[in-house]
Specification:
By secondary structure, the protein is α+β, with helices and mostly antiparallel strands. Helix content is 48%, strand content 16%. A two-stranded antiparallel sheet has the order 1-2.
Length: 63
């Protein structure tokens, strides 16, 4: 099924999704700013942040 004509802006976000793995973790992000999400995902490992903290930031709409 194709959705490109349903809501074009949302279709573009889905097409430009972020899907990657790192160790035992996987991320699927559908966002207007997948580059920022990827940066935060990578920094989570560099700074050894907890993924609960990452989820909290998501819920607050930080990115």
């Amino acid at each position: 099924m194709r959705f490109e004509n349903y809501v074009p802006k949302n279709y573009e976000m889905v097409e430009n999704h972020l899907l990657k793995t790192k160790g035992n973790y996987i991320i699927l992000a559908i966002s207007e700013d997948t580059e920022k999400v990827d940066e935060i995902f990578e920094n989570t490992f560099k700074k050894k942040l907890c993924f609960g903290c990452l989820n909290s930031l998501l819920e607050q709409g930080v990115f």
